[in-house]
Amino acid sequence: MIITIDGPAGSGKTSVARSLAKRLSIRVLQSGLMYRAAAVLLLERHRIIELRDLDSDAAVIDSAVCHQLKDSLSADDISSLDGIEYGYENDSQIPFVKIAGENILRLLNKFVVGLPASIISQNPQVRAWAVDLQRQVAQKYSVVAEGRDCGTVVFPQADFKFFLTASLAVRQSRVVCDSSRGIMQGQVAGIEQSIIQRDAHDQTRSIAPLTAPQDSIIVDTSAMSLGEVIEFLLGLIFEKRRNR
């Protein structure tokens, strides 16, 4: 079974995907982690950042530098992506992501990595690598796949497709309150603009732009709790199963 959950930053898709996967006893496939890992690996490979820099209050990754990197990736750069490990330990529904054997999941969730990942993912070879990896995972496991093009590009024949959205104010609040993103006090003021900038990148990119799949169910989560969203989606899934 493949369930896709797409949507912009702060729409709740990661929390929803994890909770939904737990209720259904299947795996979470977080496509964004693959692009974030690719961005971090390539930025480090070109000595633009070091992993330890991502924990700094002053961590900033210039978007112009990311655009330049995206447009100049070599065959060796793309081959280096095969050093990224994405998988599950024991019966865990949450993935690990490793570079050089080190689980870097905590660093990948940092808010500062989001925009570089959005930019570098526009490279066709990076995207082809990630899409292939996502499909490999879904061949092994039933998954709740969350991202920005899971229902439109990666799994167009998914069993269930959902697209989550929320108001900008709600999305900003969620991002700021999400401790896993590692947002420092000095970064809070710029979160709204960062979300707007990220949305613009995702919605206007030439390859797999962020858009709701035509056959998806769009859910505005602005006024819904996580539990309410999960129960709503489960109701739709179970109803469709009964009618088959």
Give the key terms:
244 residues, alpha/beta, Rossmann fold, five-stranded parallel β-sheet, three-stranded antiparallel β-sheet, 48% helix, globular
Largest sheet: 5 strands, parallel
CATH architecture identity = 3-Layer(aba) Sandwich
- What is the number of helical segments per DSSP (H or I, 4+ residues)? 11
Q: Kindly give the count of domains.
A: 1
Terminal residue distance? 14 Å
**Low-pLDDT windows of residues:** none
What is the H/E string?
A: EHEHHHEEEHHHEHEHHEH
Helix content: 40-55%
Secondary-structure class: alpha/beta
Radius of gyration: 17 Å
DSSP strand count: 8
- Name of the CATH superfamily: P-loop containing nucleotide triphosphate hydrolases
- Major sheet strand order: 2-6-1-7-8
Roughly what is the average pLDDT, rounded to an integer? 89
**How would you describe the oligomerization state of the chains in this entry?**
single chain
Which descriptor suits the 3D outline? globular
CATH topology: Rossmann fold
Beta-strand content estimate: 5-15%
Using the coordinates above, name the CATH class. Alpha Beta
